[in-house]
Every structure is written in structure tokens, then in C-alpha cells.
Amino acid sequence: MARITAGITTSHVPAIGAAMDLGKTAEPYWAPLFRGYEFSRRWIAEHTPDVIFLVYNDHASAFSLDIIPTFAIGCAESFQPADEGWGRRPVPVVQGHPELAAHIAQSVIQQDFDLTIINRMDVDHGLTVPLSLLFGQPAAWPCRVIPFAVNVVQYPPPSGQRCYQLGQALRRAIDCFDEDLDVQVWGTGGMSHQLQGPRAGLINQPFDREFMDRLVSEPDALARKPHIDYVRLAGSEGIELVMWLIMRGALDATVREVYRFYHVPASNTAVGHLILENGGVQQP
Amino acid sequence: MALDKPYADIPGTTIFDAEQARRGYHLNMFCMSLMKPDNRARFLAGQRAYLDEWPMNEEQKQAVLARDYNRMIALGGNVYFLAKIFATDGQSFQHAAALMTGMTQQEYLQMMLAGGRSPEGNLYR
Q1: What share of chain B is helix, strand, coil (3-state, %, to 5)?
Q2: Interchain proximity B112–A267, CB inside 8 Å
Q3: Hey, which of A91, A125, A173, A176 has its CA 20 to 30 A from B82?
Q4: Active-site pick, A125, A227, A263, A273
Q5: How many Å lie between the alpha carbon of B12 and the closest alpha carbon of chain A?
Q6: A46-103 residue pLDDT tens
Q7: Mind listing the pLDDT tens digit for each residue in A150-192?
Q8: DSSP conformation class of A143
Q9: Size of interface A-B (CB pairs under 8 A)
Q10: Number of independent structural domains in chain B
């Protein structure tokens, strides 16, 4: 049977991808950030899954204002890196897992989450930067990836509670897939940041640190945090953090925190990163 | 009954909700067109003529020509769409953010290196 072994959260700032693509990772501005991922690269080399279910948001790349799916699952065989206005990132094509994706779509829709099924889609920095952070610059990504796009561009995004419950439904779906697969769920985006208006540059370190603590220890309560708290306290783009709750919902009630990293700034953003291993006690 | 918008009192912040998305539909769709290299080249070669191909209002077009991102946001633009404009100009999110705050690039960079804009005094109008 397929099983979820671990969850990872990480920010997905586009400038991080650009720093890697342009060979700037050793520069004084970027070096502390990349040092924070050295442990993670060693860890993932020993824990490379068969499939990553990667929760991210599209930034007006695959989805314009013509179609705005709240939850979209990528069921294609492969996904090209998107041209976001400065050319495609020089990263490998993402290989999907159409069989598992289709299985998840059917199971999760039957659990009352009305996913949009996507059979053709380019993936932007929201998906490729986390892969680059964890895997570096390989000729091919070492595992398959199911992209799962959440609308956080046009307000309102789904609630934290909805995201958390979706993660629980995802867990039930993956647990009943017959093939023997090691699956990780990644939740990306955040942490506090605001990219627009005179308040741009807002960073709220106490909010971020508490969010990471509670994501590990009391996700049920954290999931009830209302939207207004995210946008007011963590910046208009800090609302991306609801996506971390999908990851957490897919893990056990108790998890083992293997690694934590927090760094300010990467461009406009506070970077947060967690590696959580399943603790063996399933959620009810 | 009007929708509840508890975010209306956040200072210096425009939430891209359904009303803003409606106002900015054509502006944002113009931005999307800049994801194609040919369109980027055509836009840079003749900005006014390119903008006139889109059913945007004059205020929106003037805001684009002036690269006035705060104005574009007030007129329904969303930063992830507007990013296609500053990417076409070869500029970063940090450049655009500095512009919107009225700070110089260097001042903005220093603020971020010092831990970013503090929440203190910046949560309520």
C-alpha cells in the first residue's frame, strides 16, 4: 500500500530560484539561507520518496483571471516549468504520477472536496523553487510530483479549516492506493510577507514562530485561525500559509519534528521550513 | 446585504477580492499577455499602441505607462499579474515593492535586512 512518511513545509520565494539559476547562492546575501537547507538536502537524499504531493499556489501563470480553481490537482504525465515573464526556469520537467493523482482525485471528490482536475498545466516558481531548495540542481528530479494548486490569489482562499480537512481526506485517499509507494506531502508558501502597497515588506516574526510551533503541536486549533488574522498579522500574501495546513492534515496526530529553519529576509519574505516525520499515531 | 470586509481597515493594503478582480479584469489580462516573449517585445517596442489593443480604461493605461503600481492596484491590478510588467522591464519583486512603499531600493533592502517592516503600528488604520 502507499503510505505517507513525512511532510515538509517551505517558502517558495521566486528570488531563491533566481539566486540558484544565476549562481548567486554563495553571495553574502544568500549564503545564510542556503546553509539553512544543507541538513534538508542530506535528509532528503536518505529519504527520497517515490512521489511528492506538492501543495503550492499558482501566481497568475497557469491560471489567469479566466478560470480560478480553489483546489486543482495535476493529473498529467508531466509539467513544464512556466515562463512567468522572464523565460522558463532552467530546471527539469516535472514528472507526474497520473495513476495516483487520478486515484486521489476520485477519492477526495467522493469525500466532498470538489477538486478541479487539470490534465495540462505549466508549473511556476511556487512548485519549482521548493524542489530546487531540497534537491539542488539535478539533471532530472529524483521522484515524481503531483502538483496541487490552491487559489490564494483572488480573495477569499479556502479557509484554514477547509485546508486541514482536505489534508485528512488526502491521507485517507493515499492510504488506500494499492501500489507500494513512499509519499511525502509538501506544503509551500509563506511565511509572513506583503508584496503590495505602502505596507509592503511587513514581516511578523512572532506570528511565524508561533505558527510553526502550533502547526506541529496543535494543528486542530491552528486550523481555526480566521483569514483576517493572516492578512492583518502576516501580510496580504502571508495568507499562503493556509496551504501548510493541507500538509499537516495529511500527517499523523503526533509527528516528529526532524528539522526547523527560519530566516529573514529572502527578498520580501520570511522563510520558514519544517521537516516532520509521521509519529505513528493516526488521526481519528 | 453587503459582504463583510473586515480587511478594509488594514493600512496600506488592498485585498484582491471579487470586487477588485472585476474592476481589474482587463488590466490583469493585459499583464498575462506578457508571459509570451513575442508580446513582451511588442509591448516594449510600442507601449501605448500595445495597451490600446486592450479594453482597459484610460486611467489604467496611464498607470501602466507611469509604472505606478499603487495606482494599478487601486484600479484592480493584482501584484502577481503586475509582476509580468516589472519582469518585462527586467525588475524584481523587491524593486516593485520598494516603489510602492516610496522608499529607495537601498532603503527598502536595508529595512528587509533589519527584519522587515514591523507589525507595530501597521495593523490597523
Answers
A1: 60, 0, 40
A2: yes
A3: A91
A4: A125
A5: 5
A6: 999 999 999 999 999 999 999 999 999 999 999 999 988 778 999 999 999 999 999 9
A7: 999 999 999 999 999 999 999 999 999 999 999 999 999 999 9
A8: S
A9: 152
A10: 1
Residues of B in contact with A65 (CB under 8 A): 21, 25, 28-29, 32, 81
Does a structural domain hold residue B95? no
pLDDT confidence band for B69 (50 / 70 / 90): very high
Please answer yes or no on whether B97 and A264 come within 8 Å at the CB atom.
Answer: no
CATH code (residue B44): 1.10.700.10
- Determine the average pLDDT of the residues in B77-93: 94
Domain A3-281 sits in CATH at 3.40.830.10
CB within 8 Å: A201 and B17? no
Of A196, A201, A207, the CB nearest to B108: A201
The residue of chain B nearest to residue A207, with distances taken between CA atoms, is B119
Q: Do B115 and A236 touch (CB under 8 A)?
A: no
Give me the domain span that covers residue B86: 18-90
Q: Which of residues 208-227 of A touch B (CB under 8 A)?
A: 227
> Would you state the pLDDT for residue A86?
79
**Is residue B44 in a domain?**
yes
pLDDT over 80 (residue A259): yes
Rounded Cα distance between B79 and B53, Å, is 22
Candidates A91, A97, A95; CA nearest to A138 is A91
Q: What is the pTM of this model?
A: 0.97
Can you give the residue ranges of every domain in chain A? 3-281
Is residue B114, in this structure, part of any structural domain at all?
Answer: no
Cβ contacts of A192 on chain B, cutoff 8 Å = 116
Closest-CA residue of chain A to B85: A85
Rounded Cα gap, residues B44 and B22, in angstroms: 27
Structure-block grid coordinates of residue A144: 515524481
Cβ atoms of A160 and A245 closer than 8 Å = yes
B115:A207 CB<8 A: no
A125 tagged catalytic: yes
**Three-point CA angle A138, A141, A143, nearest 5°:** 140
Within a domain: residue B46?
yes
Predicted local distance difference test score (pLDDT) of residue A157 = 97
A230/B contact by beta carbon, under 8 A: no
Handedness of CA A151, A155, A156, A161 (dihedral sign): positive
